[in-house]
Design a protein that fits this description.
Blueprint lengths: L8 E5 L27 H11 L4 H8 L4 H4 L12 E2 H4 L3 H6 L6 H10 E5 L3 E4 L3 E2 L15 H17 L3 E4 L15 E8 L2 E2 L4 H15 L4 H6 L5 E9 L2 E8 L1
Parallel strand pairs: 1-3, 1-6, 7-10
Antiparallel strand pairs: 2-5, 3-4, 7-8, 9-10
Amino acid sequence: MQKRDFSMIFTLFSPSEGKRTGGTIGGLDTGTLLFGLAPRKAILDAYNAIVGGDNPDQVLALFGLKKAGDAQPFIADLYSAPTMPAVERYDGVAYEYLDYPSLDAEASTYLQARLIIFSNLFGPLRGGDLIPTYKVKQGNSVGDFAPERYYKDAFNAELDALIGGDEILDLRAGYYDKFFKPSRPVTTMKFIKEGKVVSHWAKAYRGIVLRHLAQHRFETIDDLLASQIPGLACREILEKKGKREAVFDIL
């Protein structure tokens, strides 16, 4: 049997509030988005209407910001603004520890294809999908649209079909469970330091795990769990209905 080019794991991941600016001139219509641009057009148009409108308070509320100057980097038309791969666009804690720019070509290609990021504006994206900079505070609606409900209705079945029989490593923060409910079991991770579950710094360890996975491209999640992930030791694997949870001690 011929060996697959990629491991049989899809990783589900959160976006970040922080985003890099800039990118390649071209615009959304020249990029390739998972499941296409058309199903997203209504919510993207609603975003553009707010950002390009004459109500700065509405813009600040959408962005979750207080100062107009802080909003300025995100004031742009979504369809014509420069784009870059989603896995490069985000620069929060998890992405700092992933350190995507330092990965080799094979690891980069792996993340572009096998990483699914759940954006508060664009919904599910492959790591390599080209997107502009934008700003939507987690939990905010975009006009009349609640992104988590909008994209669950639009893409849940399509994501299930895309993943098929592959394994799912779910490294999302809890809020992003609302965007997609897999029909098959998933593996999640919990990180413990000095007997306490880590919350904020869990983002860092999710980034470390994702980097390790991209570098080694394990064929199964069991292979990943059996490996030596930097700074972590797998304590136990708990089987629960619909998922299993790998519990790690932080070394």
